[in-house]
Amino acid sequence: MLRIAVLVSGGGTNLQAIMDSLxxxxxxxxxxxxxxxxxxxxxxLKRAEDYGVEGLLxxxxxxxxxxxxxxxxxxxxxxxxxxxxxLAGYLVVVPPCVIRRFENxxxxxxxxxxPSFCGTGCYGxxxxxxxxERGVKVSGATVHFVDEGTDTGPIILQxxxxxxxxxxxxxxxxRIMEQAEWVILPKxxxxxxxxxxxxxxxxxxxxx
Length: 208
Ligand code: GRF
Description:
The protein is of the alpha/beta class. It folds into 2 domains: 1-102, Rossmann fold, CATH 3.40.50; 110-208, 3-Layer(aba) Sandwich (Rossmann fold). The chain has helices at 13-24, 43-51, 66-79, 96-101, 125-134, 169-193, and strands at residues 2-8, 30-37, 54-57, 84-87, 106-110, 138-145, 155-162, 197-200, 203-206. The strands form 2 sheets. A 7-stranded mixed β-sheet has the order 3-2-1-4-5-6-7, covered by helices on one side. A two-stranded antiparallel sheet has the order 8-9. Helix 4 links the parallel strand 4 (84-87) and strand 5. The chain starts with a strand and ends with a strand. The structure holds 5-O-phosphono-beta-D-ribofuranosylamine. The site of 5-O-phosphono-beta-D-ribofuranosylamine (GRF) has 15 residues, from helix 1, strand 5 and helix 6.
């Protein structure tokens, strides 16, 4: 059983997609152990409660230094013997000590086709504003392993989504969530849980 921690900051629709996939059997060999938020008001924490899984608040604000926060986060993951950390709309920079300890065991969902519209400052609605401003006809989502860069880790899955004329950032964001994010994030977790993902340098091999 792959022991999963999901890290969130907001609404948690991706978290919900993971929970639904665990319930439906679309994700097997995995168990959601904890949901960790940096934001006390994150609706994702309510989703965790409703699902009956631990919801933990670990916010940099509650610690005297960033180092203390970093260590607390690492400790929380180690104490729970987490195998896979899933960043699902987590707006905090993951501490290097966590990244090193969980090499190729942290995944992130990004709402564009990396390497487009990614990197520092490219998160949330900004991603879709940039895509629309550039006039791309196709955007999408990417699940990737997390390394010490921003959106630079090995790519696991990507799914394209059509940009429609007249899209607003909000409309495009929603379509990408529905058609791509909620599909490929659970799918990637299931592949990892079933030992089907191999990483070689920056290339990911999927044994399907
Ligand atoms: C998603 O668009 C995800 O790609 C990005 O943050 C958003 C999180 O949404 N990283 P939610 O909290 O899962 O609803």
